[in-house]
């Protein structure tokens, strides 16, 4: 399964790299990965699904799988908790 469409761009590969996979409750994300190098040297890219390990979920605010409970996944958008001390 891929993010929106199977194809991602060089910009997405070089700059964005990772995106939350919608509909997975933050347990999966997509990585823009090289697919093929054509004869003219052009590289094509695609969104590859990656799963977070047990007890973790994808925290899009920092771009990694993070401990469940360290952030809130709402509407497929990871929101980091802000801890304040008084």
From TrEMBL:
GO molecular function, one term: chitin binding
Superkingdom, taxonomy of origin: Eukaryota
SUPFAM superfamilies attached to this UniProt entry: Invertebrate chitin-binding proteins
Protein name per the record: Chitin-binding type-2 domain-containing protein
Domain Chitin-binding type-2 stretches: 22-68
GO cellular component, one term: extracellular region
């Amino acid at each position: 399964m891929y993010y929106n469409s199977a194809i991602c761009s060089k910009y997405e590969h070089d700059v964005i790299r990772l995106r939350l996979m919608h509909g997975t409750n933050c347990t999966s994300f997509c990585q823009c990965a090289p697919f093929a190098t054509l004869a003219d040297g052009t590289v094509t890219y695609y969104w590859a699904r990656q799963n977070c390990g047990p007890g973790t979920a994808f925290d899009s605010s920092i771009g990694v799988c993070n401990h469940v409970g360290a952030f809130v996944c709402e509407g497929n958008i990871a929101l980091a908790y802000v801890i304040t001390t008084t």
